Sequence to fold (364 residues):
Amino acid sequence: MALHCGIIGLPNVGKSSLFNALTKISIAAENYPFCTIEPNVGVVPLADERLDKLAALAASAQIIPAKVHFVDIAGLVSGAADGEGLGNKFLAHIREADGLIHVLRCFDDDNIVHVAGKVDPLVDAQAVELELALADLATAARAREKVIRLARSGDKQAVKRVEVLDRLIECLDQGGVVGGLNLEEEGAALVKELGLLTAKPMLYCANLGDEDTPQTSGHYAALSQHAQAAGAGVVAIKARLEAELSELDEQEQAEMLAALGMNETGLQRLAKEVYRLLGLETFFTVGPKEARAWEFRAGIDAASAAGIIHTDMQRGFIRAETISYEDYVALGGENACRGAGKLRLEGRDYVVQDGDVLHFRFNV
Ligand code: GDP
Fold:
């Protein structure tokens, strides 16, 4: 599966509302904890004005945006790490995610049950993070158990592994952030191998009430401070409002956004942040038939980028004709760039840059 972001949080904080809005796929969003159990995948187009500009210059008949994959992971509950009932399943889904959006209830509404009886995003955040840390502790302890005998017999690799595991366990035990441990290459590889939940890139999503703003909401301010300490970002959205907005057609939506003094929906902002969180960047392919944005993991080479479009292109890769987005727009299109010597011929090891307009030459 493509890189994807899991949506997590306690029950009744607005995950389903957010997910529905994100995908317009209707799943039940009722005032009822545990209402969504099976995970659901939503694929959201990423708004990118660069793509529109390129399409206009090339008079492309079709525009195909990049995508962000979201997975709705149903409400995590206290005790999940004990592996009781549904807990295990939640954690397994979280383990598969490449990044996490942690939705926190920042809206006050007496009609909507709060599982802990009180709206306090900080307490909620800590409750969820504790579950993740406990799950990681269990994972690390199991891994240590497996290798400890070998380590005692003096096996160097095993000794090293136990050393790293002990550091991880100590850190998790003290409520620390594994990402902040500054592990060497081996340690980082181990964290990855174990699929530690607390090491995943995470973004807080503050679900504000309709009347709130980030400036006026005390809940938001508290969460923001917590996020900063954890080195994580926060995106403020209004899940219920976004759900309503997503029901409107494009014109109505634009009118409502204007009336609200907004220039993009909260969902668009969120998609952009998640794109960044997952380490995704964009290259473009542009022609009269279509202008298309392709998401890729930052740092890949040109041959791998070709493989995103088609495995044949990677197999038979010859070169990538490359124009930077800035040149393409400044000079007004491919031909002008070619004439001005701004079209580069790059080989398979070229590291693709965000915004590159690529044309792959290949032969199979
Ligand atoms: P989940 O259990 O986290 O998936 O939460 P839901 O999305 O099902 O939301 C639970 C309830 O809270 C639903 O009745 C939503 O309509 C309501 N809700 C979600 N977001 C907001 C919001 O921003 N403001 C208010 N007042 N209610 C919301």
The CA atoms of residues 328 and 336 lie 8 Å apart.
